[in-house]
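Why do we care about 3D structure at all? Because function follows from shape, and shape follows, mostly, from sequence. That is the central idea of this module. The next example makes it concrete: a single protein chain, its amino acid sequence, and then its structure expressed as tokens.
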Amino acid sequence: MKEFMEFMKLTLSDKSVHTARSYRKHLESFFSAFGVDTLDDIANIKVSDVRSYLEERKEEGLKDSSINAEIRVLKVFINWLVQNNYIENNIIEGLKFRKEPKNLATIVTKEERNSMITSCKSIKMKLMIALMFYAGLRREEIVNVKLEDFKDGRLTIHGKGRKERILAIHPYVLGLKDKYLKHRGNSYEYLFGTQQGFGGVGAGSWHKLSVGAVRNAVKRSAELAGIEPERVDKISPHTLRRTFACDLARGGIGAFQIQKALGHHDITTTQRYIAPAGADIADEALMSQEPPE
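And the structure:
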């Protein structure tokens, strides 16, 4: 369906590869379930049919958060079709999101953060983890950092949707970077690279690190830090980014400034990130109240 391909092309120009892949997966599952081949097939779907489809997904064991992710993608795609006059009516108008349990997201403590950094076996891994904790980089942003992006103690970060932001980098992290580059001993353009294996075409040449390697590094650093296995399972690159936001909130930085540091389009997303810090801030405020004389 050429309209779907057009939509995916626009999505790739504005979103990360990871997000675009998620859009494609959700929409192709939807097309398969309803036998969609043309726009007419989409226009003939009723909202009640979509509700039944999602209820079946729930019975298959899909969590409410995952179902809501599918709904979000459907809403974006169907709204795009209507706005571009590919279909007349919004076939999912009135489709509501499911209520999700409001559990606070996982963040790590200051002690765990320090241990995750200092326990790393290599300076490369230590720098990578420190950058996520002290600058809140996404894993896609980590692999795209170039040497030229560092200037006068600041880092230009190439974020989602080709948006850039500039952050001051902690002297400790800059020191790790200088030590790492001295150890690396070459001028490869990306900060984090790895060499091709030996024996094949291009053996010994440098190439960008994969986002999977970033995820593995985070898991490994948590294990080396001695964090309980149950918590290690919940720690991801996004956990480090969320911890960065909460550390700023605890330090008295406002949501607007944190939004700019994270590169969020919508401040409500930032507010969700810093929610775990709310209890700590409230506790501190409560305990600092003066008793009567």
